[in-house]
Amino acid sequence: MKALLLLGCPEVPSQTPMAIYAIDKLTDMGYDVTVSSNPAAAKLVKVSDPKGYYKHENVNIDNFLDKVEDADFDLILGFVHKDSAATYFITYCSLMADVKAIALVFQRDSALVEEYAQMVDQSTDAEIFKSKAYHNPNPIRVSLEKALNKLNEENNS
Predict the structure, then answer these.
(1) Sheet holding 127-132: strands in order across?
(2) CB–CB of 19/35 below 8 Å?
(3) Within 13 Å of residue 11, how many CA atoms lie on the same side as its CB?
(4) pLDDT digit string (tens) for 82-119?
(5) Which residue in 99, 108, 155, 107 sits closest to 127, CA to CA?
């Protein structure tokens, strides 16, 4: 199985540790993980794992849009913390309409969480897991765990 992890702009401090956490969890579930991000987010993930314990492929979020197809992945997991991240997630979902999609929507402002979740909901069939978070990764981790537990149940039934 293959998973595509979409990372938004790395300005949110909790995104990088949560990306490493997601790579680890998805790998444990049997997924080969590809991280699609901008160069800054890719560098932060790489620097955070200097010994390469968390195996994944990195691709540029813009360049990969021209190459991706439904058959390439079984899962899209997107970190959505601003409108541009929502737009990338929506775009990837539209290019891979038959792929299971999960959006982790988070922001420090509850109104923005709802706005980004609504953007994703109106444009995709993705499952949306929301949390109010910015510096503290724990609310995002809880959302991710809920999403992955549900995914595990679906895959095992």
Answers:
(1) 57-60, 32-37, 2-6, 75-80, 100-107, 127-132
(2) yes
(3) 9
(4) 999 999 999 999 999 999 999 999 999 999 999 999 99
(5) 99
